[in-house]
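Let's study today's protein:

:::
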Amino acid sequence: MDEDGIAVARRCYQAYVDGDRTAIEALIGEEFSFTSPVDNALDRKTYFERCWPNHRNLAGFRFVHLVADADRVFVTYEARTATGEAFRNTEILTIRDGRLVAAEVYFGWPMPHPAPSSGFIDR
């Protein structure tokens, strides 16, 4: 990686917390693609229309794992919302030339976990 991918990842998450659209636009490449369980390869324009407004709901991130491997950074975080709720997600970020070019998001669970320790939730 030309620039430390973990540092780029941290700046992306901080831009969300700060509501800094200028910062996040500078970090996301033109060829950006965003995929999650409910989004399939959104382009940069659609990502900003659909996902960026969520920055208003985020108060902070606590990183559980930040692991770089070649041009990818594997991130697990616990996020706090503006209303005090918390949740955990994992994301795989692809970073090239100091810019985020792809994000895969895997939704986690609310915090604290709704199932009892060593237990599960019947559905």
User: Anything to note?
Assistant: The helical segments are 5-18, 21-27, 44-50. The longest strand covers residues 99-111. The radius of gyration is 15 Å. The chain has one domain: 5-111.
